Amino acid sequence: MGYVDIHCHLLWGLDDGCRTAEESLAAARTLVALGYSEVAPSPHTRAEFAGVDAALCRARLVELEALLRSEGVELRLHAGAENFFDDAFMDRASRGEARGLGERGSNVLVELPFHGRVPALADLVFRLKVKGLTPVFAHPERCAEFEQVGRAEEVVRLGGALQLDLGALVGRYGRTARKVAERMLGAELYAIAATDLHGAAGAQDWIGEAMRALEKKVGASGVERLCAANPRRAIAGEELA
Fold first, then answer.
1. What is the DSSP letter of 210?
2. Number of helices and strands (H, E) in the chain?
3. What is the pLDDT along the chain (241 residues), one digit of tens a residue?
4. In whole angstroms, what is the distance from residue 56 CA to residue 145 CA?
5. Is residue 175, in this structure, part of any structural domain at all?
6. How many domains does the chain have?
């Protein structure tokens, strides 16, 4: 059935990802060549990006679907977003307007600041779970909050999920992110692995290398769980294994 990517910036002109339809098409072809069959593009929802406009993102998703069909690129698209975990997001969640994955949207991709503390994180995770939402934390290995001993374990224990940025395994984000990612993998804390792809240039090489590194650490069954089974469950609104 192929791999499933819940975190990539495939929709053009919405954030710091693909800038044109041609770039989006090239990135989609790269993902297919790497074995992906489904993707939930995840534009940033921060105010400085056009991706904050949910209606525009839905329209762009439809445009990309049409482009892929016309070009014969077999990549199924789903709704998604990379939500910045701030007060505005919590307000939207309280109104039932969180931009989750897939049609049900009960699993929600969120990102923390790369630097600085989030002291109320455990309480925020609890509040989302009470509302029937599961936060899936994007690239925790790149966030200072998760460098604290026991923080990742606490979030998982409370019902949150962690998403590995594959690039961390090949040093794309520096030595610290790589070490944290390897530690979290060893502790079996990750539920999902994703590309965080922003463009096609060089992607086939580094994602391919990262997938090989992932398989060395978790085996073929681990790759299937992190890159196919669980992301597919996340889009379907199911519990992650």
1. H
2. 8, 8
3. 899 999 999 999 999 999 999 999 999 999 999 999 999 999 999 999 999 999 999 999 999 999 999 999 999 999 999 999 988 999 999 999 999 999 999 999 999 999 988 999 999 999 999 999 999 999 999 999 999 899 999 999 999 999 999 999 999 999 999 999 999 999 999 999 999 999 999 999 999 999 999 999 999 999 999 999 999 999 999 999 9
4. 32
5. yes
6. 1
Write out the residue range of the structural domain in which residue 172 sits. Answer: 3-236
Residue 99 CB coordination number (10 Å): 23
Confirm whether 229 is domain-assigned. yes
| E strand intervals along the chain | 3-5, 36-39, 76-77, 83-84, 107-111, 134-138, 161-165, 190-194
Look at residue 53 and tell me if it is in a domain: yes
Residue 43 · residue 14 · CB < 8 Å = yes
Residue 118 CB-density burial (10 A; 0-12 exposed, 13-18 middle, 19+ buried): middle
Q: What CATH number did the domain enclosing 128 receive?
A: 3.20.20.140
